[in-house]
Structures are given as C-alpha cells and as structure tokens.
Amino acid sequence: MGLKDGQENPVAPGAVVPGARDVGERYPLQAPLGRSGDPDVDALGGAVTITKAEALVAWGRKNSLWPIPFGTACCAIEFMGTVSSVFDLSRFGAEVVRFSPRQADLMIVSGTITYKMGPILKRIYDQMCEPRYVISMGVCASSGGFYDNYCTLQGIDKIIPVDYYIAGCPPRPEAVLQAVVELQNRLQRTGA
Amino acid sequence: MTTTTTTPSTVDLTKLRNKIQGGILEESTLPPMPCVRVKREALLETLEFLRNDPEYRMHQLKEITVVDGLYLRESERFELVYLLHNLDTQKRVAVKCRVEEDDAHVPSINHLWRAANWGEREAFDQYGVKFDNHPNLKRILNHHEFVGHPLRKDYNIFRGHWCSEAETLLDELELRRKMFPERIADADHDPGETMILNIGPSHPASHGTLRNLVELDGETVLYCVQEIGYLHRGFEKSAETHEYNQVVPYTDRLNYCSAISNNVGYVKAVEELCGIEIPPRNQAIRVIMCELSRIMDHLVCNAANIVDLGALTNFWYLFNLREKIYNVIEGVTGARLTNSYARVGSLWADITPDFIEQVRGLLAEIPQHVDDTMKLVARNRIFIDRTVGIGKISPDDAIAYGYTGLCLRATGYEHDLRKAQPYYGYDQYDFEIPVGHQGDTYDRIMCRFEEIKQSARIVEQALDSLPDGPYRADHPMAYLPDKQTRTYANIEGLVNHFKIVMHGIQPPKGEVYSWTETPNGELGFYIVSDGGMKPYKCKVRPPCFYLYSSFPDLVEGQMVADVIAVLGSLNIVAGELDR
Ligand code: SF4
Question: What InterPro entries would the database entry show (chain A) (predicted)?
Fold first, then answer.
C-alpha cells in the first residue's frame, strides 16, 4: 500500500527522528581519567570507564552498523566500489553488508526506485528491526533525479523515512563514506 | 581509415515481390537496410517467407517496435517495425505494417522467432498494439496497475501511477506448467508438494531488480518464470523530450557498467542520421574508450558472477583493476562511472596529454590481475563443477532467442560485429574473437576473460596508430564555431553559432538503425527524426533483453543454486534490460 498521490508524507525529510535524545553530551562515554569521583574506580587507574547504559548502547550502535544495500541501478556499482578495497567501507566499521533486512540496521538505497519497485522497498524497510536508518544514495533515490517521468518515484522519502541524502549521479565513494560517518557521529551524539 | 557510415546492406527483394505480389504497399529504405511495407493480411506470410526462404534466411529477429504516427500522418496511426538479420551473410531487412488506432492488432510471430515473445509484449505495453494469438500478452515493463500506454504521443510523460503490490506471477507459472506438463509428472514430488520460491527482485544475486519465481522439486527447478521492469526508467520517453545531445547522459545509464559504449552507440546513430563523418582521430579514441569499457564491463560481470558462486577474493582482485581504469578514464571524461563522453560528431574533449602513457601502464597490469584470478578459479574443483555444463544453450536456440555478442559466441557460433560489419576501423586491428564450445556458464566466463585480453590488444594497437588531427567532425552541427575567427568574424559563423545554440542538432527527416558491438552484444538504436531538435522516436535494442528472455530454458532442470550462477554469467544489466 504505497501512498496515493497528494497524500502526506508520514516522515518529512529532515524531521527530528522520534525518540532522539541528546545523551552523548550529558553522559560522555569516556569519563575523564581520575575524575569519576568514585575512589574505588579511581584506584583502578583508568582501567574502568563509568558511563550510562544509554551512552554505551549508542556507542555500540555507532560502531556496528550493518548495512543492507538496496541497490537497483548505476549507484549500486559505485556502492560496490565503496566496499571494495580502494575505498574500503570497513575502515569505518560498517562493512558487514547483509542482504537480509532482518540482520541489518542501515539501508543504503542506491539506484533509481520506480513505482513498480515501491512496494518492494517498503516491504524490505518494514522487515528491518528497529532502530533502523536509511541513507538515500544518489539523486535518483533522493528526488527521482533526471528521470522525471511516468515510471520513476520522485524520491524514496515518499514511502520511507530518510536520514541522509547523498547528492551526485552517482555520488563518489567518498561521499558515501561521509554519509556513513555523519550517521555514526549522530548516533554517538544522540544515541538514535 | 574506413568511413564511419555503415555500408548499406543490399538485398535483392525480387523473390519476395513475386511471392507477396499484392501485399507490398511500399518499398523504401530504413538506412542502412531495405524496407518493405506490407498489408496486415500479408504480414505473416512476408515474415515467414523471409525467415524460411533459402535466399533470405533471416534467422534472427532483431527488434519489434512501433512508431506512433500521431503527428506524422492522418490515418493508420501505428506503424510496426520488424528488423530482421541474417547472421551468416550480414544482410538485414526491415518490414513495416501500419494499423489504425481503433483496430490496432496484428498477428503474433511468436512461433517464428522466440525473440518475438518479449518484443511483442513490450510493444503492447508501451503502445497498446495487440498481437493475436500471443501466448501471454501482458505488460512487461510497466506494472500491472498502470493505466494507458506511455509511449503513445498523447500520453503525458509526467503521469505516473502508484503500484500497491507486486504481482504473484502464479498465472504465468500456470502457463509454463501447461507448456511442459511432463516435468511435473516425472518429478519426485507430487504436484501439491513442490515448493514455489520467489527469487528477487531484492536479492543480492539478482542485481537488485530481476525477479524469478521458480517451482522446485527438491532442489531441482521444474519451472521458472520471470518478471522484469523494476528498473524501467522511461529512457525512450525521456529521449523524445530532450535534444539530441541531451540524450547522451541518459544513454550512460543503459548499461552503466560500460557507459561509453552506449554513448558511442547512440551518437553513431545520430551521426548516420545527419550524415556526419567523424575524423580518424575521433574514431580511434572511441575505439580505445569502448574497449576499455568492455574490459571494465567484463571485469565487473565476472567479479560478481564468481562472488555469486562463493569466491569473494576474486572480487577484490578484479575490482582493483576496475578502479585503476576508472582513474584513467576519469582523467579524460571527468567522471568515474557515468562518463557522457561522446557528442554528436565530436567528443566532450580530446584526450589529455598523459592519457596514452597511463593507458599503457594499465595494459601492462591487466594480464597480472586476470592471471591472479584465473589461478584461483581455473583449476578449482568447486568452480568447475558449478559452471561446466550448467545453463547450456545451443547456437540455434540462441539465435532464435535473439542472442548477440558474447553469449552467442560462447555457444560456439562466431559472430562479432566488429569483424562482421566493421566500423571505426576495427578491421585494421589485429584481434581474435574467442568462442566457446557449448554455451554454458563456464564458456561465458572464460570468453569474458579472453575478451579482456583481446580488447587490451586492440587498445594497444589503437594507441600505436593514434592519428593526429582534429577530433571533431568538420560539420556545422558538431561544435560551436570558434568565437574570434568565426562567430565575430563573419555572418556565416554568427548564424552557425545562433543555430546551434537555439536549435541544437536538427537532423533531416528520416530514420536510421545503427548498431555497435557492446560488451553484451548488439546495441542498436532506431531513431526516427521529424526534422525537429528532439528525436521523434528513439528505440534501443538492448542486447540483454533478449538474453534474459531465454532464461527459463537455461535453468529449468538445473539445481536452484545454478539459477544464480547462470544469471550472473549472462551479464544482465538492469538499466539496459528495462531502460
Ligand atoms: S543517481 Fe545517477 S548514477 Fe545513481 S542510480 Fe540514478 S541515474 Fe544512476
């Protein structure tokens, strides 16, 4: 059940993700050495870090993004370039590419999404476990690109929420890396 | 250097004339081939005669398409165009037939050429022309909830239709069961106990956009049906709303693994339409770029194919080489993947001074990368067991399905347009065409590896003999005149500048079918011009459309894991398949 023409988009682009809180600032993960305030901990000489559970979870999320590539077109070839040895997404800790939505929390939509593909994209997104994030790679996924015509969906944000948009047709691999890093920074900062 | 325009194929049509007598309405040419327009009543007979008569033996149907004549003539709105090809003699013939809008149907020729099955479905989907007695006349590129026929001239390009859910495809499976009832009768499992499995479109090995539904008896595939169109991006409609040179970026995204081949294929067609001769330097640069693209395409195809078989290391080996080629091509074209390098009668820019040096460096590295990979797979038991004899097709079947290019050669039938109908001086380069033995997955993979080496040979020779001189054609439509010496100097220069800025390229009225040998096979462009600045119609003949239509025949009877292996070896690129 895609949206009908004219129907409101459930999650507007750039909207604050529900539940996002600024945990990182209040509870920095790494307590400065020797200033935890607890003499027992300080006695251990920094081998122990005190933090809040939320911040720990945020840290874990940040460093264990498992992407599912929803690659349909030319951008998918650049995504292949991003994960292969020259650009190497694994340097940023997000290389466990999983093709099952149930094992992934970051969907990278790379390629044109047509109306025909719409229901499939929605279904795959729905199958992902929360919390889940979406990066829209390339102008096609973001806005339909130069395919402004009868068969191309004018942006995936008409059917699923998007966290980061990457410009370019196709974006360079560096741009994809930047989007992943930005997402990681946000996770660290806000925990979601 | 040879001339750039394709030599017309001369076919003596006397015999056909005698046979069809009253049925032929008009004889003309669809450059570069002769063309006959027949009455609908005589269409089937004409096509059958052209196929079976020993003098013509048109064993391949290249393309079926429709021209919507809404703005061209008063009556008989739809004109069907059939392009036929004899692969042995290289003779080609076009057959046309006009029908009225309210009576838009013609007999199906599905029983003559298997390639007609999908071709007719596409014509029905895009134009609404019906084909009588077609076994399964349903939409193919657009989804099942689509209303109208988008390539009709009166269809608004922006009118999209939401699709609420995917089709079940069970109706097509039922058709397939009816076609081969013995398979289910011989199966180990009873009819109710077989398993129906959906593969794709969101599946890593189905390239993100191909969908198959298979019925399994244990692990053996009994029936397979396909659905395509998930990446139908409206290339042809978009081309009709853009100026000739503006279409070039769209062609990049057909076969995006080798974008420049598509650019060149398209501009070659427009040049033939306008009668522009490109200079030798341009031809040689196009050859170099196309062959580098061929190498890149084969690299990514084999890399992905072998990954699908479970061997990941090859992917890194082959993709590294691809990255190196990217870097060199980027230096000239400014883009890694979607290069948009060719222009009508010209190129985006001449090659850079250090390009030749860099390409030579690349050529030195290619054998190393290929050999590294071959060491891992060539004598690997798993690889051989999973590829040899899997997904076989005979040359006759392949031709009937419309196979061209590498997949046809893998069956053992030697046919390469670079040799058979050379263009851009391919006849001056010394290279071989690898052919396979039995048209299985193994042959296709190995032919690709061999073609990489042969393409490298061509590039080397082209570099050695790269002519100096201008890279742009001496033609008013090929480039903006120089400001100081022409635009501001004389009135012709000024008018030329004005014309090209305001009106762009305006080919004379007419039509053309032009082909090139791309990594996947014969990429054809059929362009109709009404004299305006945009193509009236721009139809692509995508090689993998026809390759993929044979897929059920390749995988039925094999194991389910082989579906993946075979799919990868055909190199189906969705952008080209669905356009
Ligand atoms: S953004 Fe460009 S490169 Fe990416 S899928 Fe769209 S057309 Fe292809």
Answer: NADH_UbQ_OxRdtase-like_20kDa, NADH_UQ_OxRdtase_20Kd_su
The secondary element (H helix, E strand) that includes residue A23 is helix A23-26
User: pLDDT digit string (tens) for B385-426?
Assistant: 888 888 888 888 888 898 988 888 888 888 888 888 888 888
Q: For a substitution probing ligand 1, which of A74, A121, A149, A166 has the most ligand atoms within 8 Å of its CB?
A: A74
Rg of the Cα atoms in chain B: 24
Handedness of CA B408, B409, B412, B415 (dihedral sign): positive
Strand partners, B67: B79
Kindly tell me if the per-residue pLDDT of B145 is higher than 50: yes
| Mean local confidence (pLDDT), A55-75 | 84
Whether the CB-CB separation of B373 and B314 falls below 8 Å is answered with yes
Torsion of CA A128, A132, A136, A137, to 10 degrees: -80
Pick the CATH number of B14-132 from 3.20.20.70, 3.30.70.270, 3.30.460.80, 3.30.70.360: 3.30.460.80
Please check the confidence at residue A1 and state whether its pLDDT lies above 50.
Answer: no
Return the residue matching tokens 């800790």: A93
Which residue's alpha carbon is nearest to atom 3 within ligand 1? A170
Per-residue pLDDT of B335-347, as tens digits, reads: 888 888 988 888 8
Q: Indicate the helix (H) or strand (E) that contains B387.
A: helix B381-387
Q: For the whole model, what pTM was predicted?
A: 0.85
Between residues A12 and B152, the one the model is more confident about: B152
The answer to whether B174 and B225 have CB atoms below 8 angstroms apart is no
Q: B235-545: which CATH number, 2.60.120.10, 1.10.645.10, 1.10.10.10, 3.30.1390.10?
A: 1.10.645.10
Q: CATH 3.30.460.80 region(s) of chain B?
A: 14-132
Q: Helices B280-308 and B560-570 sit at what angle, rounded to 10 degrees?
A: 170
Min Cα separation A178/chain B (Å): 18
A170 CB within 6 A, ligand 1: yes
Residue A37: the pLDDT is 62
Residue A96 in contact with partner chain B when CB distance is under 8 A? no
pLDDT of residue B264: 92
Domain A65-181 grouped into CATH 3.40.50.12280: yes
CB B253 near ligand 1, within 6 Å: yes
Q: How far apart are CA B235 and CA B247, in angstroms?
A: 9
Distance CA B532, CA B21 (A): 36
CA distance B579 to B577: 6
- Ligand 1 pocket member A139 (CB < 6 A): yes
pLDDT (tens digit, 9 = 90+) per residue, A152-181? 988 898 899 999 999 988 898 999 998 998
Model confidence at A95: pLDDT above 80: no
Residues of each domain in chain B carrying CATH 1.10.645.10: 235-545
Cβ contact B539:B566 at 8 Å:
no
Distant-in-sequence, close-in-space partners of B447: CB < 8 Å, separation ≥ 6: B406, B409, B410, B434, B435, B436
B569/B377 Cα distance (integer angstroms): 15
